[in-house]
């Protein structure tokens, strides 16, 4: 396995189909053997059902189910523990990180870098749900 993409999922039923489609589209021409590991972190919506339905038609999609909400860090660790890829990439389920950046990041590894990190430009958050709390907290 060349690549594992780990995504913590918590109440993301609306964004999951687009997430899976975007990851598939981003990696389809790379020739990489990859897995998309979605870790359901005790979602109370239909996230797990959406993942299960999508996995029936997508051999790349693997689901890890946590019995309750343990938080993003624990969900990420569960995904890392399950990962079989030589390289592991983490993404957010809300597509704040563009899966189409993965091939460019992998190219940097091929250049000899030990680790590659990206940052978000042009965040999609609204002022009230992310920016204002961040300003207040910091």
How would you sum up the major sheet?
A: 4 strands, parallel
- Widest sheet: strand order? 3-2-1-4
What is the CATH topology?
Answer: Spore Coat Polysaccharide Biosynthesis Protein SpsA, Chain A
Which structural class fits the helix and strand makeup?
Answer: alpha/beta
Number of strands: 4
Descriptive notes:
This protein has 138 residues and is of the alpha/beta class. It has one domain: Spore Coat Polysaccharide Biosynthesis Protein SpsA, Chain A. Helices cover 38% and strands 18% of the residues. It has five helices and four strands; from the N terminus they run βαβαβαβαα. The protein has helices at 16-27, 47-55, 72-82, 102-110, 127-137, and strands spanning 3-9, 34-41, 61-66, 87-90. It has a four-stranded parallel sheet, with helices on both faces. It is globular and about 40 Å long. The termini are far apart. The relative contact order is 0.22. The mean pLDDT is 92.
């Amino acid at each position: 396995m060349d690549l594992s993409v780990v995504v913590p999922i918590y109440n993301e039923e609306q964004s999951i189909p687009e997430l899976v489609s975007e990851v598939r589209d981003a990696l389809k021409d790379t020739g990489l053997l990859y897995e998309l590991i979605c870790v359901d972190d005790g979602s109370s919506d239909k996230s797990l059902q959406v993942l299960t339905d999508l996995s029936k038609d997508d051999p790349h999609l693997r689901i890890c189910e946590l019995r309750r909400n343990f938080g993003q860090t624990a969900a990420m660790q569960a995904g890392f523990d399950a990962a079989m890829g030589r390289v592991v990439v983490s993404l957010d389920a809300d597509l704040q990180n563009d899966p189409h950046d993965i091939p460019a990041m992998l190219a940097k590894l091929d250049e000899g870098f030990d680790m590659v990190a990206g940052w978000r430009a042009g965040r999609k958050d609204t002022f009230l749900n992310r920016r204002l709390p961040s300003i207040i907290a910091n």
